[in-house]
Amino acid sequence: xxxxxxxxxxxxxxxxxxxxxxxxxxxxxxxxxxxxxxxxxxxxxxxxxxxxxxxxxxxxxxxxxxxxxxxxxxxxxxxxxxxxxxxxxxxxxxxxxxxxxxxxxxxxxxxxxxxxxxxxxxxxxxxxxxxxxxxxxxxxxxxxxxxxxxxxxxxxxxxxxxxxxxxxxxxxxxxxxxxxxxxxxxxxxxxxxxxxxxxxxxxxxxxxxxxxxxxxxxxxxxxxxxxxx
Length: 229
Fold this sequence. Notes:
Number of domains: 1
Number of strands: 14
Shape: globular
CATH topology: UDP N-Acetylglucosamine Acyltransferase, domain 1
Distance between the termini: 74 Å
Radius of gyration: 21 Å
Helix content: 25-40%
CATH class: Mainly Beta
Number of helices: 6
Largest sheet: 5 strands, mixed
CATH superfamily: Hexapeptide repeat proteins
Strand content: 15-25%
Order of helices and strands: HHHHHEEEEEEEEEEEEEEH
Strand order of the largest sheet: 3-8-11-13-14
């Protein structure tokens, strides 16, 4: 490894910092001020503690150092749960741009969550044991989860899906689907494109690819030229 490469590696921004910055930018993209986001937004506090604790444990060497790191992380996360009512286990793998606009009653499981996901208040994403196997939901990118929703079991919520407020979801949800009810059922395929806002979304190739079918359907069909003389 060259000296330049070593220097770049030494000054590289840690991955958890980049993810936390994306979380911060979600709040800013929604119109919140800098000071409001940092000092008055409980959802961002919970994201910060989650990112820091996860990075702390991953960086600690095995043995007593990692044991101490886990103890400190558990203490910090418990304090954050008491202050915000938001429980994010450090074992959960969450992409950048997590947005929790309101505090209280947010309980997440150990399953992965994609990038630029919005989770409203009073949401439970939990495990479910079926046929002796315990499973956790997998949440895709750019998913909007409405207030008072419950998502349980070994299921997948596809990219750009919307879980409407009060939904009880026990089956996988296709990409772009909007579900509602108890049990949740698909009511449309309009997706979360009008609900999820983040920096650079207009140029995001994955979002544009997912949005393409909607644009094609919305285009007016030009009449075919007549073959009559």
